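User: Run a structure prediction on this.
Assistant: Running it now.
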Amino acid sequence: MKEENIIYPSLVEESYQIALAHGVHKTKAQIYKMLVKSGMIDPNGDPTESALKAGLVSEYSRVDDGNYQATSLAVFKQDNPMYAGYADSHFTWIDDQGWAVDAFVVRGVANDVLNDPDSTPEQRQTAYEQLEYAKHME
């Protein structure tokens, strides 16, 4: 199975993006193994108690879906560049769920996917579904 088909825990994905931004070229699998070996995350990708106590994942909070999401909007936008161009007023923090966006952002991101000639049929289908969902948000 190719690495791009593997869904890694959010802390691994975020660590991978940080590594890339700093010029470190490791695979996500290597990042995962390094984080587990160092005691930062457990084999399921959750931060260990020692990592939480040390404040190493303090910018992130566990949400209902079991993943971690940045508690600061600036970090969230950095982790999710597709939202970077939208004003902060379009985002709301919902306890236990994380960041939510309004219909304007949903439509914008969906249209970006539909206008991207490299988007896959699955991405386009999801974008159409998001446009329908946005109609009911208003």
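The longest strand covers residues 91-94.
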